[in-house]
Design brief:
By secondary structure, the protein is an alpha+beta fold. Among the domains are: 129 residues, Alpha-Beta Plaits, CATH 3.30.70; 63 residues, no CATH class. The strands form 2 sheets. It has a 3-stranded antiparallel sheet. A two-stranded antiparallel ribbon has the order 1-4. The chain is extended, with a radius of gyration of 26 Å. The N and C termini lie far apart (90 Å).
Length: 278
């Protein structure tokens, strides 16, 4: 063994810093949670919502299929015959009692798949906590959307903009019998407050990512792809410049939001001070 080989063998531990040095040039991913949150995917599974038709009638017909298919046994439903003079749903029956125990729920979305009338869907909201066990059992009064079609927002839930959009979007991407010919076709009844939601695309080219807010895995997880799968424009020095521009744009947007908040805070303080002096 020569002197060079011996020196190389003694300094081999420096190879352990290679991955660390590579990550030093990558953009930071830290977010100031909970003030700032990362955008959620359209197929996010969160808190359930009981929907209405566009005319205001409830979609739930009290068939109890959601309770029967639930693997966690967290749903309790009891149907009741519709009153002839004032029907609640278009069918013969409606959901008189509807409860979900969120201490058991695993958000598998099987209840959404089993529902024949698309009455129950899942929103993107998953950040909600309880101070007692009774709050964890949501009743129909808390699950059913209001007269404007908007989800009920309880004090212990952290709703953000967009959490009510594209509820259970993966269901709209499912095509009958696996036929891609049905993909992109609207197969979802209209909902109060939202109308007919846009169908989400799946594996074919019949998709509108701009309309549904979907991001491809190559765009979201590019840093985890193999080198040969990353576009040439995003490799090497050219890729570093591209990532630096994205980081600068993100930082600029964050600074503009901070300046706006500070401006509003100063205006509020000024108004409160003027009111106190008056």
């Amino acid at each position: 063994m020569g002197v060079g080989d011996e020196m190389k063998d003694q300094l081999s531990f420096l190879g352990g810093f290679k991955l660390t040095l590579q990550h030093m040039t990558r953009p930071r991913v830290t977010t100031m949670y909970p003030e700032e949150k990362k955008p959620k995917q359209p197929r996010q599974h969160g808190r359930h919502v009981l929907n209405r038709y566009e005319d205001g009638m409830e979609k739930c017909i009290g068939c109890e299929l959601c309770a029967g298919v639930c693997p966690a046994d967290c749903i309790y439903v009891r149907g009741l015959d519709n009153p002839p003079d004032h029907p609640v749903s278009p069918g013969e029956r409606y959901g008189y009692v509807y409860e979900i125990n969120y201490l058991r729920c695993i958000h598998c979305d099987l209840c959404v798949e089993a529902c024949p009338t698309e009455a129950i869907t899942e929103s993107k909201l998953f950040e909600f906590s309880f101070t007692n066990r009774s709050d964890a059992i949501y009743t129909k009064a808390e699950l059913l959307v209001d007269d404007d079609g908007m989800p009920q927002k309880l004090p212990w839930e952290d709703w953000r903009e967009g959490d009510d959009m594209m509820t259970s979007g993966w269901m709209r991407a499912t095509s009958p019998s696996g036929s891609a010919a049905y993909e992109g076709e609207v197969q979802w009844s209209g909902e109060l407050g939202y109308g007919t939601r846009a169908p989400e695309g799946g594996q074919s080219g019949r998709r509108n990512d701009e309309l549904t807010g979907t991001k491809s895995l190559r765009e979201t997880l590019e840093a985890h792809l193999l080198t040969e799968d990353i576009p040439l424009a995003h490799r090497g020095m050219q890729g570093r410049v591209w990532r630096a521009r994205i980081g600068a744009a993100r930082h600029k947007k964050k600074m503009e939001a901070t300046r706006t908040r500070m401006k509003e805070l100063r205006a509020a303080r000024k108004a409160a001070k003027a009111q106190g002096q008056a």
